[in-house]
From TrEMBL:
A molecular function (GO) term: voltage-gated potassium channel activity
Gene3D superfamilies hit by this protein: 1.10.287.70
Organism: Holtiella tumoricola
Name of the protein: Potassium channel family protein
Gene Ontology CC: voltage-gated potassium channel complex
Chief subcellular location: membrane
């Protein structure tokens, strides 16, 4: 649950939450349309199930589009689903990379500030800086 809240917070801060919300509204709307145009789909629940199988690319085959309009809408729904599902991990990874870059820059700024004031540092602080420099040197 915590991870889901974090993902939602990231989506909200990047305004991708609007895309996700509009996607779910679109699915609900498409469910209504499929119930009207497809003869094999007899209820709104079945229509939503069909939308889920299309978006998730599972395609169980218990329902399928037979009308031209239904097939076109299925293609549209599947492309939109693939787009949104691919977009979310990209946004989360991008946000994480940006966070790590900021954290690294802050760490570098703190380190450089200490280097600028070497004469004010104690022997323990100098030893700590020396150890960090050796650690960074061998990691590269």
């Amino acid at each position: 649950m915590k991870k889901l809240k974090l993902v939602w917070k990231i989506l909200k801060s990047t305004n991708a939450d609007k895309i996700v919300i509009s996607f779910f509204i679109f699915i609900l709307f498409m469910g209504f349309i499929f119930e009207l145009v497809e003869p094999s789909i007899n209820s709104y629940g079945d229509s939503l199930w069909y939308c889920f199988t299309v978006v998730s690319t599972i395609g169980f085959g218990d329902f399928y589009a037979v009308t031209t309009l239904g097939r076109l809408l299925t293609v549209l729904l599947s492309f939109y689903g693939i787009f949104v599902i691919a977009l979310i991990p990209g946004i989360v990874v991008s946000f994480y990379m940006e966070f790590m870059k900021i954290k690294a820059n802050e760490s570098t700024a703190t380190f450089l500030e200490k280097l600028e004031h070497l004469e004010d540092l104690s022997k323990e602080e100098l030893a700590e800086i020396s150890a960090k420099v050796r650690e960074k040197k061998y990691k590269m």
